[in-house]
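tokens incoming
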């Protein structure tokens, strides 16, 4: 596995790239910055929202594995998986809240609260 950072244009907005996910997670709250990565066919978005860090996994073709989740947490957060909140049924929650069917086959969100 190899995690590769993808460059993002300066004028790109997270809500424009992933509107359903951004609305579900942040609902108009401020985001400090975000970075986009690829891990094979999985898109990984690292989002720093001042009080928490979210890592969103999106895959159009397959389910996201625990091995992928553990690898990305070790690479980006450098903390044990036991210290983060893993939300695996995120796709179902977004579809229920927005009352739409969204394209990715699987969406997983990792939440880590930042202690100031």
């Amino acid at each position: 596995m190899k995690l590769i950072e993808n460059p993002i244009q300066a004028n790109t907005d997270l809500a424009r790239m992933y509107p359903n996910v951004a609305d579900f997670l942040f609902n108009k709250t401020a985001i400090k910055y975000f970075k986009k990565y690829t891990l094979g066919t999985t898109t990984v978005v690292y989002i720093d929202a001042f009080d928490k860090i979210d890592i969103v996994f999106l895959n159009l073709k397959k389910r996201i594995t625990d091995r992928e989740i553990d690898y990305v947490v070790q690479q980006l957060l450098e903390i044990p998986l036991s210290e983060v909140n893993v939300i695996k049924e995120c796709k179902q929650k977004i579809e229920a809240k927005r009352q739409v069917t969204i394209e990715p086959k699987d969406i997983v969100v990792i939440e880590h609260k930042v202690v100031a």
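note: The chain has a mean pLDDT of 85.
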